[in-house]
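Example record for the data management plan.
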Amino acid sequence: MVLRFLINSGILNLTLGFLAGIMLLYMFLPKDKHVQFEDLALGDETKSVFTKVDNRKIHCNDLTDSRECVAAYHELGRKQPVILWLGNSQVHAINQPKSNDETAATKLHRKFQMEDKYFLTYSQPNANLQEHYILFSHMITKLPITKLLIPVVFDDMREDGIRTSLLSVFENSSAVQKIKQSDLGLKIYSDYLKQSRPASDFAGLDKSIQENIEIILNEKLGEFWTIWDSRPSFRGQLLNFLYISRNWIFGINPSTTRKMIPGRYATNLKAFKEILELAKENRIDVLVYVAPLRNDVKIPYQTQSYSEFKLEIENVTIQKGFYFSNFENIVPPEYWGFKRSSSLGGDRELDFMHFKEAGHQLLADSIYKRLLELDANQ
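Corresponding structural encoding:
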């Protein structure tokens, strides 16, 4: 009876396929524990770059390395006003990198260093606005932020939840106090308190499926397979394997048209508004910009939904008294590259999110010019 249910529901096939995938992954993917999951996901032609300037860490990922960035600022001892840039992988990834290539984050830090201002960057792959809200709430308790730079990306409005690497924010009582002042923040905090364990690497999957898979991975596999607990890189490789397998099954690639997910969009829009409210309360200027997007081919978004998204973000930004720019077309086609296939056995694909070092130069120049304009108008 139970076996028939498992077969009919597809759970048995899913479980067997999943376990087979784990074994194949372990056999064929790199076993080097120093392999970075994000670089694995980005592919061979794109590299994550988190540079130090004058041996100071000026570009962090999340709260796992944030102390290094904060300590670097305080060690400088000059109490400079901080310009904080929160972004996704576009901010830290360089397509077809050369050995001395720098990201826009590094270029901007050097520029503002000449003006006795401290430019600091945090970027996470596929970061949604809920995560930016949580991180911003933390950072304003740590540094004298005077300006906030926020890119908006349609893809990231489809993301949901708070990743594990940000949950230590709830150990910061000052940040928690700020977060709990909003309905959204209170919900995020309440969800955190209800969890019996940290948020999963599988955030974003259907909740019921997610919970069942987590039990298998974290409890059952851990009982008899020590590699699951001792090799974080293996877990990253597994997630990437599942991702490309999903894409192969459903025929998804970077050019596939992505639709708006109404519930997630609404939640991220609320988070965006809370970021602006928090900035206003703390007298922090905000520059919101539409992130660069490859435009020499059909974009992977529904045209109407994408246009409505940009207009809504612009209207909210201006209504809150802040500044908006559209940088989506500043990087020409020749500065965009390719990425490894996001599906099993496929050819390399167009990269709509990451560009070459020359694109980072254009982005840095555009941001710098716009921030100077804002200062001149005040």
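Summary line stored alongside the record: Residues 42-230+251-377 form a domain with the Rossmann fold fold (CATH 3.40.50.1110).
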